[in-house]
Write a structure and sequence with these properties.
The structure is a single chain. By secondary structure, this protein is of the alpha+beta class. 35% of the residues lie in helices and 28% in strands. It has four domains: 2-46; 50-157, Immunoglobulin-like, CATH 2.60.40.10; 185-223, no CATH class; 227-430, von Willebrand factor, type A domain (Rossmann fold). The protein has helices spanning 5-21, 26-46, 166-176, 208-212, 249-266, 293-300, 312-320, 338-345, 349-353, 366-373, 378-403, 416-429, and strands spanning 2-3, 54-59, 62-64, 69-76, 83-91, 97-98, 102-106, 111-118, 124-136, 142-148, 153-157, 190-196, 218-223, 229-235, 243-244, 247-248, 270-276, 280-284, 329-334, 357-363, 407-411. The longest helix has 26 residues, at 378-403. The radius of gyration is 33 Å and the shape is elongated. The N and C termini lie far apart (70 Å). Keywords: Membrane, Transmembrane, Transmembrane helix.
């Protein structure tokens, strides 16, 4: 039971009457309270029961971060009397649900559709917390209230800001694939056709037998191989929780991984996902030739950084123990933290690079670069020294990785996605993939 503003006002008015009447008018108090109690009881009896109301959910089940979803709620009043009151469809604060409450008036036996707009501020699953309905009596001085569990979930997917780079990268892929005039030669590429030699062609691509049968020099054209396997590995350990700008490093890594996944799928390659810190947090395996990008997006949505140290031994074992026994491109999105690399990944590189081609992609912090260039006062000089040391360690780890045959992409958040896509295209152009 709930007491409305009208009942409070009536009680206040009765108190004033008693104060005016004085002690001799104590009977007036009991009279007023009795009348008020009777009105409340009548109002409660006439208010339709909120427990008997039924609900049906509908609407969006997934959106990208930054977009809005609409969740509908159909409210059915089985009572004979009109239900008037307030309804609140409650969600977690991060869902940013609007409006917070709805005024309802549903005739007996009628239904009403109510919409709530969600604009989530974080990735993951947003769960409905419950629907609270307050049924107000016809006098408006008392109400009956009940909370119903009406489950619904909206999954907020990564925003995929780097999608704007996809058309340009696809154009480069079409050039490699022979749909434009440029065709390349590589050790791992497939023979396509013959054409006349033009200045700038690799002399190793000259077909001497065909040239002997013609008046001019003839070269072979090649197209990149398809159906290669790409394994995207997201490091979800504590280093991925560090914020670069206003966004966790893990989210920047996801954005770069999505661009590469979409690009590789268009190139005809098979893309898989592994999220790992001390155990597998998410895994998507390829199933035939269909695109796995939608499954990868769904798997990324609920991922959050774990405040634990990574287990590189377990990660390498999981990669080597996968379904694929053929050579594949392993793209590890992590941080070039000197201590973590030297104590973790570097000692285990030989086992991984012996079987697979490894590409390490890391998100650099532009703020560190700004600090390294700052001068002026003593504090700026100390900060510049610390930043320069961090950058030096980062360059040293990069050089060490490359000595082990690892490809490295180190770029700031605005450039990490296109730089990783370019590295993939370059590998295909060189015939290494």
């Amino acid at each position: 039971m709930a007491i409305t503003g009208r009942a409070v006002f009536a009680a206040f008015a009765g108190t004033l009457v008693v104060l005016i009447a004085g002690a001799a008018g104590l009977w007036v108090l009991w009279t007023v309270l009795g009348v008020l109690a009777a009105l409340i009881a009548v109002d409660l009896l006439l208010a339709p029961s909120p427990r008997k109301v039924t609900f049906e959910r509908g609407g969006d089940t997934s959106i990208r971060l930054g977009e809005s979803a609409t969740v509908t709620l159909v409210v059915a009043n089985p009572a004979a009397r009109t239900l008037r009151g307030v309804l609140r469809d409650a969600w977690a604060p991060s869902a940013d649900a609007h409006p917070r409450a709805h005024d309802v008036a549903i005739p007996g036996g009628g239904r009403r559709r109510i919409g709530t707009v969600l604009t989530p501020r974080r990735r993951g699953d947003q769960q409905a917390a419950g629907v609270t309905l307050r049924s107000v009596g016809p006098l408006g001085i008392a109400a009956r209230q009940c909370t119903h569990a009406v489950p619904w979930s909206v999954r907020t997917l990564p925003p995929f800001h780097s999608r704007r780079h996809l058309p340009g990268k696809l154009s480069r892929l079409r050039e490699l694939d022979g749909q434009h005039s440029t065709l390349v030669r590589g050790q791992g590429s497939e023979f396509d056709s013959l054409r006349e030699y033009v200045p700038g062609d690799d002399v190793r691509s000259i077909d001497w037998r065909a040239t002997a049968r013609r008046d001019g020099v003839v070269v072979r054209t090649w197209r990149p191989e398809r159906d290669r396997k790409i394994l995207l590995v997201l490091d979800t350990s504590r280093t991925s929780a560090g914020r670069v700008g206003d966004t966790p490093r893990l989210d920047h890594a996801m954005d770069a991984a999505l661009l590469l996944a979409a690009l590789a799928a268009k190139a005809g390659d098979r893309v898989e996902l592994l999220a790992y810190d001390r155990r597998v947090r998410a895994q998507v395996r390829s199933r035939g030739r269909g695109s796995m990008v939608p499954s990868i997006v769904q798997a990324m949505a609920p991922l959050e950084p774990e405040l634990v140290e990574s287990d590189p031994t377990g990660m390498v074992s999981t990669i080597l123990g996968g379904q694929s026994r053929t050579r594949q491109l392993v793209v590890l999105l992590t941080d070039l933290n000197a201590t973590a690399m030297e104590e973790g990944l570097l000692p285990r590189l030989p086992a991984l690079t012996a079987r697979h081609l490894l590409l390490v992609a890391a998100v650099g912090d532009p703020r560190v670069t700004e600090m390294a260039a700052a001068r002026g006062d003593a504090r700026s000089v100390y900060e510049a020294a610390a930043a320069e040391r961090t950058l030096t360690e980062r360059r040293r780890i990069t050089a060490e990785l490359r000595r082990h045959g690892v490809e490295v992409v180190d770029a700031d958040p605005d450039h990490i996605a296109p730089a990783l896509a370019d590295a993939y295209i370059d590998l295909k152009a060189q015939g290494r993939l």
